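Recall the central idea of this unit: under ordinary conditions, the amino acid sequence of a chain determines the structure it adopts. In this exercise we apply that idea directly, starting from the sequence alone.
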Amino acid sequence: MITKCYVIFFDDQKKKMSSHAALHAAHAAIIGPGLFWVGFAPDTIPDAAYTGLLFLGVGMLAYHVYLAMQKLAAERSAWVNWIHIFLVAPLLILVGYLKKDAARRYFEMLMLLGFAATGYHAFYLIRDMMLE
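Accordingly, the structure predicted from this sequence is:
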């Protein structure tokens, strides 16, 4: 099992973490639970964290628009980018701007996104480990 984890997480040619494994691990262990926590307990989150969500949303929007344009030019699928452009980034911007005054439904959407990100990325981490 340890060897399988090493194969998934590290590229033997360069001895560095695989970018896909790092992306999946970060979303499953940090981003997903973080989104869930903001949605679950918005009153416990400091105002600075909401400002962080606002800037994260703006940066994410710009980054995924750029990636989507690159993929469209190369005639590749950009479905992940569209999800971030039309769902995730606007929600982060809205909650980051309104802070604790955002409607409960937006916090519930953050919880749903947190569950979805954690489950989706954990699934792919586990699947890749089992296939190696």
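The mean pLDDT is 90.
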